[in-house]
Design a protein that fits this description.
The complex is a heterodimer of chains A (610) and B (277). Chain A is mainly α. Chain A has helices at 2-12, 42-48, 66-101, 104-138, 140-151, 153-174, 183-214, 229-233, 238-267, 271-292, 295-309, 311-318, 325-347, 358-376, 385-391, 405-428, 438-465, 469-497, 513-539, 562-589, 605-609; strands at residues 431-432, 502-503, 544-546, 550-551. In chain A, helix 3 (66-101) packs antiparallel against helix 4 (104-138). Chain A starts with a helix and ends with a helix. Residues 1-40 of chain A have low confidence and may be disordered. Chain B folds into 2 domains: 40-173, Cytochrome Bc1 Complex, Chain D, domain 2 (Orthogonal Bundle); 191-270, Cytochrome Bc1 Complex, Chain D, domain 2. Chain B is extended, with a radius of gyration of 25 Å. Classes of the chains: A mainly alpha (610), B mainly alpha (277). At the A-B interface, helix 2, helix 9, helix 12, helix 13 and helix 18 of A face helix 1, helix 9 and helix 10 of B.
Chain lengths: 610, 277
Amino acid sequence: MLLLMMVAITGLSGSGFSSVASAAGQTVAPQISSVDSDVPTDESISSLLPAPKPERSDYPKIGVSSRSLVWVIAQMHLFFGALVLAVPIFVLVIELIGFTTKDDRYDDMAHEFMKISLTAYAITALFGGALTLSLFMLYPDLMNYLTTRVFGPQMLVYAALFFLESLLLYVYYYGWYALRYGNRKWIHLSLGLLLNAVGTTLLVIANSWTTFMMAPSGIDAAGAVVGNIWDVMRGPLWNPLNLHRFIANVAFGGAVVGAYAAFKFLCAKTAAEKAHYDWMGYTSNFIAILAFLPLPFAGYWLMAEIYAYSQQMGILAMGGILAWLFVIQAVLICTILFAGNYYLWSGMARTEGGQRYRWLIKYIAAVLVLGFLVWVAPHNIIFTADEIARLGGSNHPVLGPLGIMPAKNIAVFLMLIFTFLSFQIYRRADKVITVSWEGWANALMVAIYIVASVNVIFAGVYYGYFTNTVYKVGSSVMQVGSTLVVIVSGVVIDTFLFKGAKTLPVSWGKISGRSQYALFALPVAFTWLMALMGYVRSSLRTHWHVYAVMKDNSADNFIPTLQHVGNMVTFVTVLFLIFLLFIFWVANLSGVKQVPALGSGSRTAAQGAA
Amino acid sequence: MNVLIRTLGFSLALMLIFTAVTYVLPQMKGEAPEDTAVDVAALTMDSFISLGEDLFLGKGACALCHNILDRAPDLLALNVVDTSLVRIGDPLYQGEAVNAADYLRESMLDPNIFVVSGYGKKGSNDTESPMPVADRPPSQLSNVEIDAIIAFLQAKDGNPVTVSLPEQTPAALVAADEITEPAKPMLAKNAEEVIAKYACAACHTVLESESESAIGPSLIDVGKRLTIDQIRDSVIAPNAVIVEGYPPVMPDISETMVVKELELIVRFLAEQTGDQP
């Protein structure tokens, strides 16, 4: 259908007047080989066509807001797309662990995760089709420009890869038990690798459409295509977005399957079932939090590139009308951190060794709460004249400095460092370390935590409050470095410490029911956050379809109020949740077998054969 | 069913909390800037200054960076005229402005000419400005609008306004992004029709019988002064090279002129050597 539409649109746009596209400084001279030639070639004219300039009347009216409709459909497609692309990534890793450790539990769990992904795949495709249709119907000029002039055959490559992805997904899932052991397992693992390679390629291709609209490349200032498809794709934001979405998808996928495990745990009737789904929930949470920890770094890179591309765009996000959304982002990320930490603390009850570290929990909780309070503190709010007079200015004299980015950076990085501490003590809970140098290693680890925390605070305070704006952004590099040093050194030191360590028995299933709600809080907050930040990223284009090239003259070319954004994001998250419950139900249904009633006359295959 | 209701209820409650946060925060709506045609005939200096202020805060998005947060020099706090003269006297200044109005215009059209210390792009050692060029997207201000902002910046501190009210030249009447294609594009058949269609004679002297215009250079002998490629470039990018003594006011017609018309006018002008009887 996409192909047919593209062909149809190409045909419609084949005639008409050509224009000489230019803009000061980036002139595109008409490609005429000789002045004696009166009529330039079609190819040269086509390459010079500027981006269309649709008027308000060129946008079809359907009685409801076109943007809202596309918003909901696109977000649903993105949610399910993220899930479908992410799950096979960690499924492959779990499958490989199962294969190398020869532990079938891993293999079974990986297969169960894939069952969710497979059901979600069909829904992804349905929303993808609906999105394509709605975009072509509601934004014909934009889609005509993007599909026929800018990306052209690349979209056909995308469609072809989609078919390949489908093929590989079905063979990977349905071939699971046929290719389970011995050398056949290598074939299955290779299929999984191929599936992920194709899936990731699909992701980066789709990302190029998004980043082209935000920071166009390969075209001149009027929108005429002057480069090849590679020039168009590799805009300044492409790789930062690729990395950010890849990591975020894994965290999101882990959180969603964690909710599935929690749901099954709460419904479980037997201790064996509880143990299985507790373990599954733990693994999912591990994946989600592990992927979540580096996410802010990828986010920083993306935002730094946005600033480098256009300071106006960067300031619009961080200091302009969209900046308030980052207060909501703080609430959401803190929800994720609270839930992730709480689940880890609850999980320490599974083993007796957890008692040794319980005293640390209250300090970690204190850092998280203080971090949250700093993060949500606004820089200034709307006061009455009387309030400003009583306050002595538009900022609070003491709390005012907490409202700006350096304070929030300190809060975020300390929260990440202490979340890693939760993770580290959880991992140590079931271990009795036997190496002689344990004391030295612990002293080193404590020193690393202290130095990193001090460095995060110093960099934030010094560069944030005593230098100008340019250096404020630079301070985050030191903070990122400090946080990464803690994470990497923590993993390395523990790896050596655990050599020869005695492992205490872990009672899977021995965890409170309350802790399972943390596994629900994670995907709810992740989903809401994804929708919110996707909206922020998209809104940075303001009233442009393609930033600074093709204006959005539709009736929806304004930035809506926060309430409207909140309503839209909640609506689409509820919708996703409903579809997700349907997927869980279907995944569950596939394991249910009806037992024939006594005397019904039904015979089993064995009976028949006999 | 019990688990389903409890988990669903928990999830919905959490979402309601998130939604509630959006309700307690300030509600702002960001409208797209409107391209309003400037009625040059009705402009007074006061309304021109007022237009400049609106553009500074609105369409031009100047206040996004030029504010108290120190992302760029706070133009509302500084006496811009005095500061401009200091900048012109700076040994690092390499522009051609000799007064505040020229300096401000130059800063808007070529922000890299002089970057105030500490405000350059990161890593550029203050040689590259993060400021977008004012007459290009996304701001896309016209010459009239740029002058209006200069007038506002001069007037806000009580300095005399030295920019003149715009005259009704073709360039002054349209914003940079308001050049629209004709409703029914009629292709000019010869050079004379191209000249008539694009009103070239409004600013240029094209025929010897016409009196010489002060707005644009005479084209009677342009074929002697410029090569055919230079003529073509001048039509496509009129402000790339400005003949000394003439204002950069020629409108960008590159998006409305079709290739055939371009070749007709270029070949016609290339033949204008001033030697004809």
